């Protein structure tokens, strides 16, 4: 079976955050791979990944990085496959550095940038699901059910517990 989504990250230390995207894809039955691909430490790996992503059949790439977070943008420069960027929260600047590094792409090479940290990674999984659901009715039904379940879990009134 073909892999639809590539989850890539700049470092092993990003995995705790990027796992949130993987969990969503697991919940929705979406096939994915996970790779460490660093714009600065493994630039050749980045190049090869971007160059072969379309021919390998990937449909969406989720890219997370922190600090000088060039991975999502560089990947978007190398492949036409939609790239969803996740700014990983950093200790020094709380992830604002990551966010600014990812979001301010020049015209021509977009990155769909999520929120900083775990919520952004989970939303990246949901965004990938939404893109894939356009052409996959069964996935669309699973995604609708996931959204309905989340809505149903929200109480109507606050409690002291
Ligand atoms: C970035 O530098 C990575 O994406 C990571 O968020 C950050 C720190 O990496 P480590 O020093 O923890 O490997 O390239």
UniProtKB/TrEMBL annotation:
It catalyses: 5-carboxyamino-1-(5-phospho-D-ribosyl)imidazole + H(+) = 5-amino-1-(5-phospho-D-ribosyl)imidazole-4-carboxylate. Belongs to the AIR carboxylase family. Class I subfamily. It comes from the Bacteria. The gene is purE. It holds the Pfam family AIRC. GO terms for molecular function: 5-(carboxyamino)imidazole ribonucleotide mutase activity; lyase activity. HAMAP family: PurE_classI (MF_01929). Substrate binds at residues 11, 14, 41. The keyword rRNA processing does not apply. GO terms for biological process: 'de novo' IMP biosynthetic process. Catalyzes the conversion of N5-carboxyaminoimidazole ribonucleotide (N5-CAIR) to 4-carboxy-5-aminoimidazole ribonucleotide (CAIR). Keywords: Isomerase, Lyase, Purine biosynthesis. This is N5-carboxyaminoimidazole ribonucleotide mutase. Pathway: Purine metabolism; IMP biosynthesis via de novo pathway; 5-amino-1-(5-phospho-D-ribosyl)imidazole-4-carboxylate from 5-amino-1-(5-phospho-D-ribosyl)imidazole (N5-CAIR route): step 2/2. Its EC number is 5.4.99.18. Residues 3-154 form the PurE domain. It is an enzyme of class 5 (isomerase).
């Amino acid at each position: 079976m073909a892999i639809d989504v590539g989850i890539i990250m700049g470092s092993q230390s990003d995995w705790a955050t990027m796992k949130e995207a993987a969990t969503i894809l697991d919940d929705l039955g979406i096939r994915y791979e996970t790779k460490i691909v660093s714009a600065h430490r493994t630039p050749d790996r980045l190049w090869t990944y971007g160059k072969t992503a379309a021919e390998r059949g990937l449909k969406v790439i989720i890219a997370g990085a922190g600090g000088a977070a060039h991975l999502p943008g560089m990947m978007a420069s190398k492949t036409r496959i939609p790239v969803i960027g996740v700014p990983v929260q950093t200790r020094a600047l709380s992830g604002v550095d990551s966010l600014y590094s990812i979001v301010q792409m020049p015209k021509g090479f977009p990155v769909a940038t999520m929120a900083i940290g775990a919520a952004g990674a989970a939303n990246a999984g949901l965004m990938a699901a939404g893109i894939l659901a356009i052409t996959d009715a069964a996935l669309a039904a699973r995604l609708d059910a996931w959204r309905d379940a989340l809505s149903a879990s929200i109480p109507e009134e606050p409690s002291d517990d």
